[in-house]
Design a protein that fits this description.
By secondary structure, the chain is an alpha/beta fold. The protein folds into two domains: 99 residues, no CATH class; 287 residues, Purple Acid Phosphatase, chain A, domain 2 (4-Layer Sandwich), CATH 3.60.21. Helices cover 32% and strands 21% of the residues. Helix 7 links the parallel strand 4 and strand 5. The structure holds fe (ii) ion. Fe (ii) ion binds next to loops.
Length: 393
């Protein structure tokens, strides 16, 4: 084989190998594994990606009859052929993911979307409470060029569900739901960032707020969360669930803390609420981390069914239970969105398919929030967001 063709083939094998490791880490992070096990998984993933290129270039390239020495694949032993083929086969899911990203389209029910971006002031400042978590230092990752960790996108989306089979045949109605997720209080961004986000959320003047989990990464910062959530319920009622990062901590204490702010916890439960002149069945699921998916009545008198689910992985359950709208977080938009390729990592069994945005699955609409923060202070082409959903049905 020509030297340059050999280089190209080995580089493609490196990409394919990385794709398999990304799939491995995405799938394992969608499961109910403890933080220590997941740290181990990430180390294995890092080793698998970093060690493959030197091993491949030596074992398949420079060693006897290697591709870079004029050898050919047909002269390879079964082990070398298998290694190369396995790595190259990763190009299939990789290509599929890139094509899906490139041809993605918003569902027809999303009639309109507008957004405003903010650079939140105080990027370099630590706060006195922030010292608890980060020793008054801006994390190294946060200094990454073009990092958007200190920006905020306020999005408004108009969802129209009037064209689907009417549940009970009625005049069209509208509710305004402010959806935010994944605050992940770590100490960075500091308190000022969440105060800014709270101000923007209050300005949206929704009928209800919903929060879809991953409140904290540092339990000592529960007072930050309490301050934010108590302010919000002075504007509209709030309904919340917890996420996998809360599960890693003392989630009963976190849940109590949220309830004490006046928010209604609906993790593993459902309830029927009146919003304006509409009756809405609201349910919440923290599966697979805390509890199970709630059983909801098959047929009731509600006008709309909304499920809060930390992860979009509960999609099939939501569809079976005839929810009209499923609101999720967890995937953070992928946090890093590469040019052309799109997001690579999302802790979901669906990989990056539902990284962030509005989707339709059969009769159901899904809104996956990119969230406000994350355990790692890195966001590239993936601005943190809060969203006002104006739902007409
Ligand atoms: Fe999260």
């Amino acid at each position: 084989m020509n030297f340059y063709a050999g280089i190209a083939l080995l580089l493609l094998a490196c990409i394919g190998n990385s794709a398999w490791w990304a799939i491995f880490v995405n799938r394992t992070h969608s499961l109910r594994y403890h933080a220590d096990s997941l740290r181990y998984v990430r180390k294995v993933h890092d080793a698998g990606i970093l060690l493959f290129p030197p091993v491949a270039f030596w074992f398949l390239g420079w060693a006897d009859s290697g591709l870079l020495r004029g050898g050919s694949v047909t002269e390879f032993s079964a082990v070398r052929q298998g290694t190369l083929l396995l790595a190259l086969s990763g190009l299939v899911p990789f290509t599929w993911s890139v094509v899906r990203w490139q041809v993605r389209r918003a569902p027809v029910e999303l009639h309109k979307a507008t957004s405003v971006h903010f650079d939140v002031p105080g990027k370099e400042a630590g706060t006195s409470t922030g010292d608890l978590a980060q020793g008054n230092r801006v994390p190294l990752l946060a200094r990454f060029p073009k990092n958007e960790v200190h920006r905020l996108e306020v999005t408004r989306k108009w969802l129209c569900l009037t064209e689907r089979p009417a549940r009970h045949g009625h005049e069209s109605r509208k509710i305004k739901v402010a959806h935010f997720s994944d605050t992940h209080f770590t100490g960075y961004p500091g308190r000022h960032y969440f105060e800014f986000a709270t101000d923007r959320l209050c300005e949206l003047q929704p009928d209800i707020f919903v929060f879809t989990g991953d409140l904290l990464d540092n339990e000592a910062l529960l007072p930050w969360a309490s301050e934010m959530f108590s302010r919000l319920v002075t504007v509209a009622p709030g309904y919340s669930i917890l996420g996998n990062h809360d599960w890693h901590l003392n989630h009963s204490r976190i849940r109590r803390g949220l309830i004490e702010t006046g928010w209604v916890d609906i993790g593993g439960q459902h309830r029927t609420v009146s919003i304006g002149d509409a009756t809405v069945l609201l349910a919440g699921t923290e599966a697979p981390w805390i509890g199970t998916n709630p059983g909801v009545p098959e047929s009731a008198s509600e006008d709309l069914r909304i499920l809060l689910s930390h992860s979009p992985d509960q999609r099939d359950y939501a569809q079976r239970q005839q929810f009209d709208l499923m609101l999720c977080g967890h995937n953070h938009g992928g946090q890093v969105v590469l040019p052309v390729i799109g997001p690579v990592y999302a802790p979901s069994k669906y990989g990056v398919k539902y990284a962030g945005g509005t989707y339709r699955y059969r009769q159901m609409l899904m809104h996956v929030s990119r969230g406000l923060s994350g355990q790692e202070a890195l966001r590239l082409n993936c601005c943190p967001e809060v969203t006002l959903l104006e739902v007409e049905f």
